Amino acid sequence: MNVTEAVQSRRSVRAFLDKPVPQAVLRETIALAARAPSGGNVQPWHLFAVTGEPQRQIAERVAQRIQRADPDERPEYAIYPPKLWDPHRSARFELGEQMYAALGIARDDRLGRLQQFARNYRFFGAPAAVFCYVDRRMGPPQWSDLGMYLQTLMLLLRERGLDSCAQECWSVYPKTVASVLQPSPELMLFCGMSIGYADPDAPVNGFRSQRLPEEAFAHFVGFD
Ligand SMILES: Cc1cc2nc3c(=O)[nH]c(=O)nc-3n(C[C@H](O)[C@H](O)[C@H](O)COP(=O)(O)O)c2cc1C
């Protein structure tokens, strides 16, 4: 697989087969992904890989937390800016429409949509996950470095036949996740990532997210 194939075949997978991820592969890719660049080579990422009982515990505890809120548990950050504007707002809306159409969930089926969203917190059935943290003292440039790391990891996983879904939704329950992973207090949870082998028959994996045309985001200056 070349880089183009890895980029084109990576997609967010939201239903996984019940097939374990070899530990050696996960260790190798997590180490290799650190070849990602970072400003000043500060390498601000902190990763927790999880499988088995601790992973089950995280899902279980978050499920309980959703049932009974903890006033001391606050999201790490606002996932989107308030009043998202176009074209980003429409792009986000269209992703939801595409996904729920693939699942046959109607627009007004609020419960159906919520149930699908809740599958995030079951890792979409993935047998492994990573959680990505960053020191709270780091700023926006280092946050962007996390993206470099995470995309590199996802592409390396593709090369090994594995699939993934990055998940910001875990940042809503940092305290509950920390109750299992026990990260140092200065670390804040940026996102989780479910990892495993895609279920090829799952309808939710049967759509391809769209992209804005390059005119919407790229400017070519001084070219013919
Ligand atoms: C940092 C990050 C966080 C994300 N969080 C979630 C999430 O919580 N739940 C989810 O279903 N998808 C999540 N996604 C997946 C995006 O919805 C997805 O990347 C986007 O729609 C483009 O689709 P693609 O990944 O299939 O190309 C996240 C992606 C990124 C990069």
Automatic annotation (TrEMBL):
Gene Ontology molecular function, alphabetical: oxidoreductase activity
Keyword Glycosyltransferase recorded: no
Domain Nitroreductase: 8-197
Domain of life from the UniProt record: Bacteria
Keyword Oxidoreductase set for record: yes
Keywords on record: Flavoprotein, FMN, Oxidoreductase
Protein name in UniProt: Nitroreductase
Organism: Sinimarinibacterium flocculans
